[in-house]
C-alpha cells in the first residue's frame, strides 16, 4: 500500500526519467525555428562544425540538443517526416544506452537516426542492427538519404558480400546489417592472417532494432563457424601408414613419465621422405607436423586395452583412475583421430568448431549498446541482469485506443478453429481488416485451407520471403483484407489503415494460440492501434493448446464442466486470462534460466576467447611479437633448468641426460655445461641456456634480416595459436557434453567446467609456447636472395556458419616461404650439407 501511495505522489522511475528528458526536448524545440531558417548548405555545414567541436573537447551530451534539432530539420526536408517529441525522448534513451519500448507504429526506424547521427560524429562508427537482410537494406537506403544529406556515409552489410565490400561498409559512418552478419564478421576477422584482411573496426555504438528478438529470442543459440574434417581425416590415414617404419631411439625418443614422444633428426628426415615434404618445419607444414606428432604419440605412448579399448568399431577411452569406460569422451587435438587411424576403425568426421560466440557476449563488447522494441518490459529483468540495460517506456504520440478483449476458450482444438473461421468470415463481411496470428506455419496453412473452402480471399504470410512479407503486411490494413501470419512474421513493417477502415473499428487482431512468452503475444497485438488508430485484439484458445494443456488445463476443464457448457460453447473471463498469463510467466522464467545457463558456460569460454583474440589482434595490427617470443624462450629455458637442477645436490649429480633430451626437443641443439664444483645454480644454468639459444636465434635473424624474421615470428605464432585453439574448442565441447554427469557425483557441473576448462586452457598455452619455440629453432632459413615475403593468403572457404542461417566459404590455405633443403649445400659456404652444418643449431 505504501509503495502504491508513493508512486501516486511522486510517479514511477520511468515517469521521472521521461520528465527529465522532456526538459531537453524543450531545448531542441527552441532551436527548430533557427534551423528551419537555414538553407541546405548551411544545414549540411553543421556536421563538420559538430565534429570539430567534439574534437576540441565538447561531449556528445553537449552537442545533443543541436544535433537532434539538425537531424529533425534534415528529415523534414529529405524524408518529409518530422520527429515527434516522443521520438526525441526515444532517441535520447538510445543515446544513453537504454532500451526504448515504443509501441508499433511510433516510428522506431526514424528514432534511430537521432542517436546514430550524434554518435557518428565521433568517427568511430555506428552499427544499426536489424533482424533480416530486407530490413537492413530497406533502412540503409531509406534513412541513408538523410545521413548522406548531412554529409555522413552509410554502409549495408548483407549476406554474399566479399571482404572488400564489407570493409568499405564498416568504414562508413553508419552501418546497417543483421545480427548474424555482424557476429560472423567478428568471428571471421579473428581467423584472418593479415591486418589488411580485417573488415570490422572496433565495436563502438550499436542500436539494435527489435532488441527483444535479437538479444532474447535468438540468444539461446550461439553463432558457430565450423570447418570440415575431411582433409584432416585423410591426412591422419596417410600419416598413420608410415608409422610402422619408425624405430625407437633411431627415429624418436620416448619419455614414458610425461608420455611425450620427440622425433630425432633421422625421424624428421624419414617423415619428410615418406610424406614427400621438403621441410617438415616449414611454416606451411605445421599441420602435417602436428599430425605426425599425434600419430607417433598414438602408436608409441598409448596402449590398446590399457588407455583405451576398441568397442563396436569405436575407440573408447579408459579412465586411468577408475578403469571405467568414458563413453562419449574423446582425446583432444586430433589424438583420438590418430588412435582411430591406428586401429583401422572409422575416423570420426567431426565438423569441428573453429570459432563461436553467443549474442550475449558479442553485443556486450560494444562500448555502448542500446535497442528499441514494442515489447521490452516483460523481459526488463533479463535485460538488466545480462546486458546491464535499463528499459524506458516511451509515451505514445497519441493515446492508445485499441481494445484488448478477454481470451475465448474452447474445449477442443477443432471447436476453436471452427469458431476462428466463423469469426473471420463474420468480420470479413463488414469490411474490417483481420490479421490472424498463428504460432506455426503448419497451423496457418491448415486455417488457409479452411478459409479457401469457405471462399474467403486471404494472404498467407509465413516469413519465407522477406521482400514479399513486407508487401503483404503493408496491405493488411486495407478494407476487407484477411492476412494469416505466424506471430513473428512481418516485424519492422507498419500496417497502415486503408481509407474508411478507422470507421469500421480499425485492424482486428485475432490470435489462434497463446505463445510461451507474453511478449510475443503483445507483439501481435501491437500491430493494431498505431498512432491513435482504433483497433481490437482477441485470442481464441482451446484446452488442447500446449500452454493450457501443460499449465492448468485440468483446472480450467473442471470450471467449464461445473458451468455445464455445451460442446462448441466457449468460456470468456478475465480470471482465466490472468491464469494463462501466470502460466506464461513460469515458462518465461524457465527460458530465462536456460539462456542464463548457456551464458554461464559461454562466459568461461569468453574469458579464454578474449585472451586469444586479443593476442591475434595485436599481432595483426603490426605489433612486434619478438618480446612475446623472448618470454616464451626464457620461460622454457627456466623450465629446463628447474627440471634438471636439484636443490642441495651437487651439480654433477643432476640429471644431465634429461637436460640433453630437453635441449634437443625444445631448442634442437646441444649444450655442454661445466658442472664441476659447487658454483653452478639453477639460475646460472637457466642464464647459460638462454645465452646459448639466443645466439642461435640471433644468427637466424641475421641471415634474413630483422623485418623478415619478425614477420616469420608473427606467422608461426598465429598459425600455431589457430591450430591449438581449434583443438581446444573441440575439447571444451566434449567437456561440456560430459560434465553434466558430474552431478551424479555431487559435483557442481559448472564449477567443474570452469576448473577443468581453465586447466585445459593453461595446458594449451604451454603447448603453444613449446611448439612456437620448437618450430622457430628447427626452421631452416634460406639465403637472403631466395627469401620471399611471408604473406599467407588465408581465404575462408569450406567453412559453415550456424545459427539461423548457413553459408559457404573457403578452406584456410597457407603459402610457404622459400627455404634451404636439409640435404642442400649450406649457405655459409662451408661445402657441407646444411643439416651437418648450420642446420644443426
Q: What's the shape?
A: globular
**What structural class do helix, strand and pairing data support?**
alpha/beta
Computed Rg: 33 Å
- Amino- and carboxy-terminal Cα gap: 83 Å
CATH second-level architecture of the largest domain? 3-Layer(aba) Sandwich
What would you call the quaternary organization?
single chain
Main β-sheet, in a few words? 7 strands, parallel
Compute the number of strand runs.
23
CATH class of the largest domain: Alpha Beta
How many H/I helices?
30
Mean pLDDT: 82
GO molecular function: ATP binding; metal ion binding; protein-exporting ATPase activity
Biased composition (Polar residues): 793-805
Catalytic activity: ATP + H2O + cellular proteinSide 1 = ADP + phosphate + cellular proteinSide 2
Subunit structure: Monomer and homodimer. Part of the essential Sec protein translocation apparatus which comprises SecA, SecYEG and auxiliary proteins SecDF. Other proteins may also be involved.
Walk me through this protein's architecture.
- The chain is α/β, with parallel strands linked by helices and 841 residues long.
- The chain has four domains: 11-222 and 364-393, Rossmann fold; 230-350, Pre-protein croslinking domain of SecA (Alpha-Beta Complex), CATH 3.90.1440; 403-572, 3-Layer(aba) Sandwich (Rossmann fold); 626-810, Helical scaffold and wing domains of SecA, CATH 1.10.3060.10.
- It contains 30 helices and 23 strands.
- It has a seven-stranded parallel β-sheet with strand order 3-4-2-5-13-1-14.
- β18 (459-461), α21 and β19 (482-486) form a beta-alpha-beta unit.
- The longest helix is centred in the last third of the chain and has 47 residues, at 574-620.
- Mean pLDDT is 82; it is low at 784-795, 804-822 and 824-841.
Amino acid at each position: 500500500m505504501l509503495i502504491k501511495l508513493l508512486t501516486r505522489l511522486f510517479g514511477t522511475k520511468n515517469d521521472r526519467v521521461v520528465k527529465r528528458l522532456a526538459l531537453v526536448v524543450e531545448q531542441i524545440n527552441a532551436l527548430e525555428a533557427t534551423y528551419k531558417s537555414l538553407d541546405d548548405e548551411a544545414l549540411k555545414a553543421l556536421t563538420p562544425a559538430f565534429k570539430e567541436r567534439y574534437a576540441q573537447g565538447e561531449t556528445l551530451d553537449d552537442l545533443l540538443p543541436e544535433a537532434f534539432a539538425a537531424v529533425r530539420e534534415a528529415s523534414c526536408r529529405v524524408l518529409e517526416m518530422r520527429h515527434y517529441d516522443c521520438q526525441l525522448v526515444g532517441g535520447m534513451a538510445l543515446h544513453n544506452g537504454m532500451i526504448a519500448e515504443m509501441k508499433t507504429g511510433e516510428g522506431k526506424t526514424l528514432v534511430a537516426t537521432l542517436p546514430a547521427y550524434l554518435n557518428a560524429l565521433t568517427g568511430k562508427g555506428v552499427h544499426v542492427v536489424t533482424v533480416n537482410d530486407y530490413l537492413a537494406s530497406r533502412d540503409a537506403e531509406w534513412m541513408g538519404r538523410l545521413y548522406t544529406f548531412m554529409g555522413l556515409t552509410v554502409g549495408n552489410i548483407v549476406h554474399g558480400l566479399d571482404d572488400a565490400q564489407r570493409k568499405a561498409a564498416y568504414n562508413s559512418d553508419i552501418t546497417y546489417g543483421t545480427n548474424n552478419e555482424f557476429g560472423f564478421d567478428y568471428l571471421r576477422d579473428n581467423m584472418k592472417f593479415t591486418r589488411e584482411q580485417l573488415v570490422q573496426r572496433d565495436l563502438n555504438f550499436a542500436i539494435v532494432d527489435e532488441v527483444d528478438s535479437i538479444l532474447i529470442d535468438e540468444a539461446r543459440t550461439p553463432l558457430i563457424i565450423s570447418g570440415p574434417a575431411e582433409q584432416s581425416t585423410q591426412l591422419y590415414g596417410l600419416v598413420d601408414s608410415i608409422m610402422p617404419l619408425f624405430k625407437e631411439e633411431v627415429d624418436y625418443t620416448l619419455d614414458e613419465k610425461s608420455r611425450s614422444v620427440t622425433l630425432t633428426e633421422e625421424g624428421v628426415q624419414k617423415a619428410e621422405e615418406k610424406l614427400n615434404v621438403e621441410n617438415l618445419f616449414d611454416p606451411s607444414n605445421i599441420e602435417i607436423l602436428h599430425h605426425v606428432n599425434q600419430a607417433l604419440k598414438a602408436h608409441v605412448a598409448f596402449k590398446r586395452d590399457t588407455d583405451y579399448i576398441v568397442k563396436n568399431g569405436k575407440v573408447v577411452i579408459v579412465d586411468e583412475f577408475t578403469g571405467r569406460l568414458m563413453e562419449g569422451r574423446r582425446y583432444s587435438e586430433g589424438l583420438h583421430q590418430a588412435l582411430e587411424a591406428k586401429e583401422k576403425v572409422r575416423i570420426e568426421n567431426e565438423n569441428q568448431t573453429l570459432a563461436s560466440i553467443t549474442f550475449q557476449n558479442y553485443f556486450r563488447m560494444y562500448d555502448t549498446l542500446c535497442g528499441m522494441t514494442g515489447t521490452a518490459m516483460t523481459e526488463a529483468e533479463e535485460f538488466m541482469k545480462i546486458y546491464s540495460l535499463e528499459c524506458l517506456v516511451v509515451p505514445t504520440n497519441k493515446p492508445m485506443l485499441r481494445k484488448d478483449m478477454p481470451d475465448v476458450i474452447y474445449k477442443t482444438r477443432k471447436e476453436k478453429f471452427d469458431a476462428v473461421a466463423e469469426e473471420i468470415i463474420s468480420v470479413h463481411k463488414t469490411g474490417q481488416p483481420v490479421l490472424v496470428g498463428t504460432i506455426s506455419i503448419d497451423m496457418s496453412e491448415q486455417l488457409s485451407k479452411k478459409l479457401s473452402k469457405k471462399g474467403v480471399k486471404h494472404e498467407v504470410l509465413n516469413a519465407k520471403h522477406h521482400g514479399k512479407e513486407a508487401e503483404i503486411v503493408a496491405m493488411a490494413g486495407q478494407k476487407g483484407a484477411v492476412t494469416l501470419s505466424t506471430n513473428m512474421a512481418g516485424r519492422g513493417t507498419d500496417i497502415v489503415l486503408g481509407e474508411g477502415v478507422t470507421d469500421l473499428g480499425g485492424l482486428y487482431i485475432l490470435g489462434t494460440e497463446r505463445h510461451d512468452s507474453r511478449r510475443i503475444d503483445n507483439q501481435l497485438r501491437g500491430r493494431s492501434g498505431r498512432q491513435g488508430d482504433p483497433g481490437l485484439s482477441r485470442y481464441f484458445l482451446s484446452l488442447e493448446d500446449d500452454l493450457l494443456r501443460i499449465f492448468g488445463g485440468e483446472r480450467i476443464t473442471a470450471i467449464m464442466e461445473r458451468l455445464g457448457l455445451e460442446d462448441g460453447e466457449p468460456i470468456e473471463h478475465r480470471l482465466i486470462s490472468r491464469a494463462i498469463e501466470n502460466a506464461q510467466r513460469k515458462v518465461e522464467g524457465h527460458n530465462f534460466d536456460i539462456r542464463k545457463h548457456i551464458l554461464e558456460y559461454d562466459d568461461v569460454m569468453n574469458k579464454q576467447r578474449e585472451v586469444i583474440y586479443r593476442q591475434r589482434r595485436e599481432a595483426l595490427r603490426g605489433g612486434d611479437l619478438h618480446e612475446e617470443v623472448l618470454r616464451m624462450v626464457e620461460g622454457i629455458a627456466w623450465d629446463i633448468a628447474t627440471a634438471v637442477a636439484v636443490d642441495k645436490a651437487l651439480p654433477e649429480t643432476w640429471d644431465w641426460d634429461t637436460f640433453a633430451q630437453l635441449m634437443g626437443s625444445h631448442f634442437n641443439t646441444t649444450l655442454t655445461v661445466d658442472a664441476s664444483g659447487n658454483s653452478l645454480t639453477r639460475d646460472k644454468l637457466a642464464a647459460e641456456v638462454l645465452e646459448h639459444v639466443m645466439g642461435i636465434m640471433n644468427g637466424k635473424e641475421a641471415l634474413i634480416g630483422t623485418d623478415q624474421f619478425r614477420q616469420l615470428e608473427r606467422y608461426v605464432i598465429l598459425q600455431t595459436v589457430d591450430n591449438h585453439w581449434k583443438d581446444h574448442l573441440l575439447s571444451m565441447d566434449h567437456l561440456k557434453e560430459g560434465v553434466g554427469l558430474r552431478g551424479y557425483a555431487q559435483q557442481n557441473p559448472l564449477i567443474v567446467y570452469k576448473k577443468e576448462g581453465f586447466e585445459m586452457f593453461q595446458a594449451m598455452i604451454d603447448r603453444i609456447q613449446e611448439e612456437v619455440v620448437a618450430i622457430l629453432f628447427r626452421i631452416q632459413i634460406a639465403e637472403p636472395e631466395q627469401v620471399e615475403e611471408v604473406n599467407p593468403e588465408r581465404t575462408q572457404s569450406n567453412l559453415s556458419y550456424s545459427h539461423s542461417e548457413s553459408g559457404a566459404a573457403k578452406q584456410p590455405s597457407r603459402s610457404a616461404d622459400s627455404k634451404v633443403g636439409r640435404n642442400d649445400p649450406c649457405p655459409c659456404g662451408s661445402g657441407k650439407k646444411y643439416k651437418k652444418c648450420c642446420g644443426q643449431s
